[in-house]
Amino acid sequence: MKRIDLVNIRQGTKSTPRFSQGNTLPLIQLPFGMAAFALQTEQNKSWFYHPDSHSVEGIRLTHQPSPWIGDYGAFLMTPQNDILAADHAGAWGGFRPGEAVMMPDYLKLRFLRSRCDFELTPSERGGMCRLTFDCERQSFLSLLPVKGCYGYTAVPGKNEILGWTDGHGGDRAVNFRMYFVLRFRAGDVDFSKTEIVGSNGSEGCCIHIALTGKSAVYSIGTSYISHELAEAAIEREIGAKTFDELRAENDAVWEEHLGRIDAGFSDERVEKTFYTCLWRTFLFPHKCYEYDKNGRMIHYTPIDGSIHDGPRYTDNGFWDTYRTVYPLFTLIARDEFAEMLEGFVNDYRECGWLPRWISIGEVGCMPSTLIDAVIATAIANGIGSRKTWEDALEGMLKHANHNGPEPRFGRNGAEAYVKYGYVPRDEQRESVNLTLDAAYGDWCISVAARALGRDELADEYERRSKNYKNLFDKETGFMRGRDRKGGMADDFDPIKWGGEYTEASAWQTTFAVQHDIDGLAELMGGREKLIAKLDEFFAAEPDYRVHGYNGEIHEMTEMASVDYGQCAISNQPSFHIPYIYAYLGETEKCRYWVHRMALESFSYEEDGFPGDEDNGTMSAWYVFACLGIYPLCPGRKEFVHIPPIAESLSIRGTKI
After folding, report:
1. Which among 85, 160, 590, 637 is placed 20 to 30 Å from 219, CA to CA?
2. Fold for domain 268-290+315-655?
3. Mean pLDDT throughout 9-16?
């Protein structure tokens, strides 16, 4: 069986804002592609697809990295031949979910209301669609709004519809527009009956494209720069290919990527879960660059709306992804990682700050600057150029010592951290996480500095990386916040979430010292005491108090829904904790918990994750569990080892 046939792109889609089983979308796209497509079954803000729905509003061109971030540059494609509706609320109709074909490289869906079979296969910056109707009514392809303003122009001489949208979310993106072109097969469109609803540029503008017969084929190209580059994307990526030829190319691309790990399993369910998770690790970050007429890489820069040379990548939150995604890329996507790193450093060169959580522009929705770990991981593995490393180090030093111009940029509380050796709890929320992340970030700076021959600087930041010790409370055995005078709160309870902690309590946060497990053990009284603390962690009841959030957040609900003690495998801060056992020599305890959580809480099905999947990070955790290795400290060229779940393994032809 081909590996692509093992993949279920609906994995993790059976989610709601109050209980995540992935919070994913069933994305049809190429690896790291700029354009992705998904069914829109209902317009529930960012939760626009649910696998149990029998309604469909259209096929959405999407860039959404997370429902918590939202979409940008999106529009909806819906065939209509009944009462024409100008929005999703009036255009929706029925479909049969069990009959829909949804694969990484191909979608086929029957719109029951319009009696239309809709097929799609992607390209890097667009795709091809094939529509087949079996009724005599005049049929239309409607492009419906998602968010923002829209504008359209019909170009009959080129069989094209030109469009644009400026819709985006809470990021910073100056003069943002996504330009798109639909190029139809000659004779498929009756331009005399094609209708633009609303004046160009108005909110909610849509277009009803009149089709001449019972079938239509069209190509899509997109650009963040111009319609001309959207047309060029069609020429470069699709050209004269037929729909079936493009699909065959896409199939081969995905087979090559999935074949980078050859894993053998006797359990078919585990095999499907492995390859579905591996597929997810290749979806993000998204390419955000294009090619000019000379074949040179260029990109739109959100901070000021200008155009610059070189690559750019988006749709990634480093607080989540540094832990598993980029360490996995060192094994299976080194060339792509090098280009990504160059793109991330381009953001610093153009914006003045290294990225933190980028959608089309900087969102900054999670704290601190864990891109430090991504940079250190690349450098430790020899990925990227020396010039890129030097510029990255410059950016790391800037955010390590200076506050950003607004909270979305740089380390939160950077100057207070430098002054006190910790971020005071009476100055910043989530002060414990900010301090521990800053200490780890300082260690990552030392890695970069030493690789560049700046040993004195490396020594300075290695000393700073010990600042995590300033928050350890020997009386309770937990990391706790201090105020400016060094005082701790009187009402400590290790199961209180929020406040001084990020999406966690003291239990999940205290172990966030990946770069110095030996030092953490020393604080606790020795390695045996740290092992005992881990035993207590896994034996504890999965209790929680809402505390700093003043209400329940879904991560609490998910932790308590399973019986893994205080290990919230539903969220990234707990990912590395069972592997501390392996580092301390307790391999069997590590194996027990990792295998149990992987086999109980992950599957290839619609409820396939224990929490938010987050741009490949939870999928990569599962891949590592199957491989029997884990990057306990991203930024070191090493993994801890346990027995793998897979029964045979090779990575890019090398057996492990």
Report:
1. 85
2. Glycosyl hydrolase family fold (1.20.1610)
3. 97
**Could you give the CA distance from residue 504 to residue 519 in angstroms, rounded to a whole number?**
22
264, two tokens: 């053998």
Model confidence pLDDT, tens digit, residues 204-239: 689 999 999 999 999 999 999 999 999 999 999 999
For residues 220 and 234, what is the distance between their CA atoms, to the nearest angstrom?
Answer: 7
Q: Note the pTM of the prediction, 2 decimals.
A: 0.97
User: What does the buried/exposed string (b/e) look like for 439-473 if buried means 16 or more CB atoms within 10 Å of the residue's CB?
Assistant: bbbbbbbbbbbbbbebeebbeebbebbbbbbebbb
Query: Which sequence spans correspond to the domains of the chain?
Result: 12-258, 268-290+315-655
First to last CA, the chain: 23
CA dist., res. 607 & res. 137, Å (int): 40
> Percent of the chain scored above 70 by pLDDT?
99
Q: How confident is the model at residue 200 (pLDDT cuts 50, 70, 90)?
A: low
Range 12-258 classified under CATH 3.30.420.10: no
Q: 298, 172 in Cβ contact below 8 A?
A: no
Which residue in the block uniquely carries the two structure tokens 């957040």?
553
Pair 212, 144: CB distance under 8 Å:
no
Nearest to 139 by CA among 76, 205, 87, 188: 188
Give the distance, in angstroms, between the CA of residue 638 and the centroid of all CA atoms in the same chain: 24
Per-residue pLDDT tens for 332-376? 999 999 999 999 999 999 999 999 999 999 999 999 999 999 999
SS3 588: helix
